[in-house]
Amino acid sequence: MDWIALWLSLKLAFWTTICLYLLGIPLAYWLSFGKKRQWKILVDSMVSLPLVLPPTVLGFYLLILFGNSGIGTVYSRLFGKSLVFSFEGLLIASIIYSLPFMVQNLAGAFSLVDSKLIEASLCCGESPWNTFFKVIFPLSLQGFLRGTVLSFTHTLGEFGIVLMVGGDIPGKTRTISIALYDQVEGLNYQEANTTALVLLLFSFFVLFLVYSTSNSQWKRKNIFV
Amino acid sequence: MQTATLTVAAAADLRFVLPEIVSPFQTLNPDVKVEVIYGASGKFYEQILRKAPFDIFLSADKEYPFLLYTKGYAAEEPFQYAEGKLVLWMRKGLFGERKDWKELLTNKKVSKIALANPQHAPYGKIAQTALENAGLWEKLNSKFVYGENVIQAFQFAEGKNAELAFIPLAIALSPKARNEGDYVEIPHSFYPKILQYGIIVKKAANLSIAKKFKDYLLSEESQKTLKKYGFCP
């Protein structure tokens, strides 16, 4: 088991999820409660793009973007190192890649909150900020949980983009899925088996956790039975 | 105490021999941590152009290191560290007795022939040259399957997805390949010499350690290890 790679993956997944809260909550809020419908469709399509886009396509564009032009140049001037082959580069790539998993789940949960409750809260003089924390957030916990878990696990397992943008550097960009690939390449099937099994069990455990806490799903099903 | 890290980007054919060179080097230099990344030489060439943080690049050919050198990405002139050989690998007992490589390729049992992608893997390129020189490239074209690098080409044949694989002798001499298979060498008359060169990358984090590693790679001891794996400089 490549513990360094596993730790790196967990770190990447953690920071990606944190960044996705900062980016995803306002975005999902706007998508659910915002007024401009035409813009919403455009933004929604853009956010969801990574769901259908081959990861290598995203990886390719990011490689160009991070490279010698644009963002990459600005970044390397500011921080004196390149975005390609760095943890920061992987973080940006993962945020884009996992964005739909956070935003779709949040937006879905927000839109299920009864609008009467929101109106009531606002009418009672609560600020939109307080309304969000006291009404919307508690009622959409399920979406938060799913968004968090799916963003986290998808980042953990991402391969194509990491390989293209990261370049498989131990301790810096060799994530656990890259390590698995490397173990297979080294004909080290036994170790590869351990790594794959750990990832499989982890993914299953996480999904089991989500589904076992979301009994609302079963309740909803019963309505139709 | 490990104080410095040396990142080595190494051609896939070094996968089994390099650990046997890195480990005594580590013993001699306990303050250095050597990280090796294996892959296709062409991919590393691209990555170095994009400023990948490698200190040393060990290519499976001469071309990529010299290209990097002329483009100003090398700290000093490229150095030759090995000479490779191309073989045709097959699973044990698949063809009975050892035969001539051309006979094997045209054998009726052969539906797929694996090789590393000639676009970016030197041994794939060499295999293509050998096949062209034997007049078989066009004829067998429909049977080729390309691996990302030589290890993947080997895996195709090992996993029964191809009957034959063009791989470096160094891979054919690895324990796994030796246990499971057999190989025939491709006669030297069919392909140019596979001279394997390396460079110290100009932006190496620690030039003196990189040079130390280069010297150790070229030392008698390391060269003996390379020879054991079929590299004959």
TrEMBL record, chain A:
Protein name from the UniProt record: Molybdenum transport system permease
PROSITE patterns reported for this sequence: ABC_TM1
Pfam families: BPD_transp_1
Transmembrane segments: 12-31, 51-71, 83-103, 192-211
Molecular function GO terms recorded: molybdate ion transmembrane transporter activity
Matches recorded under PANTHER family: MOLYBDENUM TRANSPORT SYSTEM PERMEASE, MOLYBDENUM TRANSPORT SYSTEM PERMEASE PROTEIN MODB
Principal location class: membrane
Keyword tags: Cell membrane, Membrane, Molybdenum, Transmembrane, Transmembrane helix, Transport
Entry GO terms, CC: plasma membrane
Family: Belongs to the binding-protein-dependent transport system permease family. CysTW subfamily.
Boundaries of every ABC transmembrane type-1 domain copy: 6-210
Membrane topology, as annotated: Multi-pass membrane protein
This protein's record includes keyword Transmembrane: yes
InterPro entries, per database record: MetI-like, MetI-like_sf, ModB_ABC
